[in-house]
UniProtKB/TrEMBL annotation:
Ranges annotated as biased composition (Polar residues): 1-10
PANTHER family: CYTOCHROME P450 YJIB-RELATED, P450, PUTATIVE (EUROFUNG)-RELATED
CDD domains in UniProt: CYP107-like
Protein name as catalogued: Cytochrome P450
SUPFAM superfamilies named among the record's database cross-references: Cytochrome P450
Segments of this protein annotated with the region Disordered: 1-24
Signal sequence extent: none
Organism: Streptomyces cyaneochromogenes
Pfam families tied to this protein: p450
Database matches in InterPro entries: Cyt_P450 (IPR001128), Cyt_P450_B (IPR002397), Cyt_P450_CS (IPR017972), Cyt_P450_sf (IPR036396)
Any coiled-coil regions, as ranges: none
Molecular-function annotations in GO: heme binding; iron ion binding; monooxygenase activity; oxidoreductase activity, acting on paired donors, with incorporation or reduction of molecular oxygen
Keyword entries, A-Z: Heme, Iron, Metal-binding, Monooxygenase, Oxidoreductase
Length: 418
């Protein structure tokens, strides 16, 4: 081996900020071993985990933190160069529970668990059924032969309206809020764009919380405000409250849109599997799990930090280094799913064996809601439009400009193929 080849093999793999081919990137990382060094946008280095067993073990290891302020020296407590100029800074700067560690995380998670009960999800069922049916009515009115962007015209408005119903976001505030939140996922944005988005977002959030404080309802934001304003409570400061609501909005809609988008795309490109569902030979839960495994809606989540040196068996991740779990690569780990891990197969025995909702203390609190939405939306869509098909070839579809959010920019379909 020449010296040049040796140095190429140890150079960190450069993560594409525009997420143009997440799975090819995952394969390149996996070829280096269960965990490999990568360079993120902005020149920040991180260890990326692609191995399912290692991911699960790190996600349940107290030596792994999500709090940059406590455990990432390079972050300089949010007062250094990274906070000023790193385009991905908002992923670690926010003080919500997704970035909290240890006792702080337990306190915030307990408050959310108190407000985001199983009942709150269950009561949304009739609302979701009506939303699905109304949106499909709108789509049914499309002129014959005109393509419909099923992501933009069905998955997206459904997920948005459900999260608005859950959180009690008034109709007048929705358009601005979701435009700005969508901008946050664009990991290729410039620093100026990120800063402008952040300012606008905080303005909107402050207005939302002021409104809910004046006119509380039976919704999650009101329940969180009650927890915040209750002096007896475990405490939630104002920044935590804003960031928590923001987290719910951000984590709660684009992820679900991606799940619906990929599930629809995969079923349209695998009609024999759609038939299994329509004939009752497979369940929609099987299809939902396989879609989650095959195309993890959150591909990579920035960021985690080593609290101490961590010996993974292959390498030692030094204390203070950053790491990322690549949920999209973990979902396709051949050690778990076999040599055909890249194939979509709703009958695959390991279809439930994925961690696309996370694992350990930060496991997704909205998973039951996302599953409920998908289990109501998907069967109804395919029942209403049994002749639905893709309007363009799969290789013409464009991925979202993100290495975090895994979906298509649009998913054009024809309700009735010629
Ligand atoms: C298909 C849809 C969804 C997917 C794939 C998904 C995925 C995830 C993942 C991977 C995590 C763990 C993050 C980590 O590694 O630290 C997470 C956490 C979280 N999710 Fe979801 N999510 C979905 C829907 C939702 C919904 C509908 C909501 C809220 C209504 C939600 C709220 C949250 C929150 C608050 C956390 C943070 C939990 C914590 O830090 O303790 N998610 N989600």
């Amino acid at each position: 081996m020449t010296d040049q080849t040796a140095s190429q093999r140890t150079d960190p793999i450069r993560i594409d900020p525009s997420g143009s081919d997440l799975h090819a990137e995952g394969d390149r990382l996996r070829a280096r071993g269960p965990v490999a060094q990568a360079e993120l946008p902005g020149g920040v280095t991180a260890w990326v985990v692609t191995d399912a067993d290692l991911a699960k073990s790190l996600l349940t290891d107290d030596r792994v933190s999500k709090d940059a302020y406590l455990h990432w020296p390079a972050w300089e407590n949010g007062e250094g160069e990274l906070a000023r100029s790193w385009p991905l800074a908002s992923w670690v700067a926010e003080r919500s529970m997704i970035n909290a560690y240890g006792g702080d995380h337990r306190r915030l998670r307990k408050l959310v668990a108190k407000a985001f009960t199983a009942r709150r999800t269950a009561v949304l069922r009739p609302t979701i059924e009506t939303l699905v049916s109304d949106l499909l009515d709108d789509i049914a009115a499309t002129a014959p032969g005109r393509p419909v962007d099923i992501r933009g015209e069905f998955a997206y408005p459904l997920a948005i309206r459900v999260i608005c119903a859950l959180l009690g976001i008034p109709a007048a505030m929705r358009a601005d809020l979701f435009r700005v939140v969508a901008d946050m996922f664009r990991t290729s944005a410039t620093l100026e764009e990120v800063q402008a988005t952040g300012e606008e977002l905080y303005g909107l959030m402050t207005a939302l919380i002021a409104h809910k404080r004046q006119t509380p309802g039976d919704d999650l934001v009101s329940a969180l405000i009650a927890a915040r304003d209750d002096e007896e409570s475990a405490g939630l400061d104002e920044t935590e409250l804003v960031d928590m609501v923001l987290l719910m909005i951000g984590a709660g809609h684009e992820t679900t849109v991606n799940l619906l988008d990929h599930a629809i795309h995969s079923l349209l490109t695998h009609p024999e599997q759609l038939r299994l569902l329509q004939n009752g030979d497979a369940t929609w839960d099987d299809a939902i799990d396989e879609a989650l495994r095959h195309e993890a809606p959150i591909a990579n989540l920035p960021m985690r930090f080593a609290v101490e040196d961590i010996d993974t068996g292959q390498v030692t991740i030094p204390k203070g280094d950053a790491l990322i779990i690549s949920y999209s690569a973990v979902g396709r780990d051949p050690a778990v799913h076999g040599a055909d891990a890249d194939a979509f197969d709703i009958a695959r025995p390991t279809r439930h064996d994925h961690i696309s909702f996370g694992h350990g203390v930060h496991r997704c609190v909205g998973a039951p809601l996302a599953r409920l939405e998908a289990s109501l939306a998907l069967p109804e869509l395919f029942a209403r439009f049994p002749d639905i098909g893709l309007a363009v070839a799969t290789d013409e579809l464009q991925p979202l400009e993100s290495f975090v959010s895994n979906g298509h920019r649009t998913l054009p379909v024809l309700l009735k193929q010629a």
